């Protein structure tokens, strides 16, 4: 288990500490399935094991790990926090983001929540394209109105 955890820390771009107190088996099955579908791994570890393995693996102060703790990690730096946050929104009071590791630094729950609210790459692309396309659309509408008035 220690080697698995060390590998997860080494290969993941972000790692989220999750308190899952009150999560029943059916909700956990849904959570694991949803996370697996987007390439995020979710594992439960003992806090003592986590603390031992994480010691000196990231910069800064490790957040307080209270309650029953799991970690979520994946290849994309924002997917694991975002998916945990989305599940947390739909299943009130079951999951709490305790903090995590991002870009080699321990971060608290507040910073991890900020990362969780960053839209996915596809959404950001769509927003960017809409931003670029908007002036062109307005110009075309204005030209159309001018043509109608002249005609």
Brief synopsis:
It contains 6 helices and 5 strands.
Task: List its traits.
single chain; alpha+beta; Alpha-Beta Plaits; 2 domains
Can you describe this structure?
- The longest helix is centred in the C-terminal third of the chain and has 30 residues, at 121-150.
- With 151 residues, the protein is α+β, with helices and mostly antiparallel strands.
- It has a 5-stranded antiparallel sheet, with helices on both faces.
- The protein folds into 2 domains: 2-118, Ribosomal protein L10, N-terminal RNA-binding domain (Alpha-Beta Plaits, 2-Layer Sandwich), CATH 3.30.70.1730; 119-151.
- A hairpin with a 2-residue loop joins β4 (96-102) and β5 (105-108).
- It is built from 6 helices and 5 strands; from the N terminus they run αβαβαβαββαα.
- The termini are far apart.
- It has helices spanning 2-11, 25-37, 47-54, 79-90, 109-116, 121-150; strands at 14-19, 40-44, 69-74, 96-102, 105-108.
């Amino acid at each position: 288990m220690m080697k698995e955890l060390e590998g997860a820390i080494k290969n993941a771009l972000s790692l989220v500490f999750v308190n899952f107190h009150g999560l029943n088996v059916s909700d956990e099955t849904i959570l694991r399935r949803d996370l697996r579908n987007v390439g995020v791994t979710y594992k439960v570890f003992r806090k003592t094991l986590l603390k031992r393995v994480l010691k000196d693996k990231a910069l800064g102060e490790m957040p307080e790990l209270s309650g029953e703790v799991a970690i979520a990690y994946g290849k994309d730096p924002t997917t694991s926090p975002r998916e945990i946050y989305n599940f947390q929104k739909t299943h009130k009071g079951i999951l709490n983001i305790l903090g995590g590791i991002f870009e080699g630094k321990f971060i608290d729950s507040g910073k991890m929540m900020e990362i969780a609210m960053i839209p996915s790459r596809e959404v950001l692309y769509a927003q960017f394209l809409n931003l670029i396309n908007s002036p062109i659309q307005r110009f075309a509408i204005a030209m159309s109105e001018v043509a109608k008035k002249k005609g």
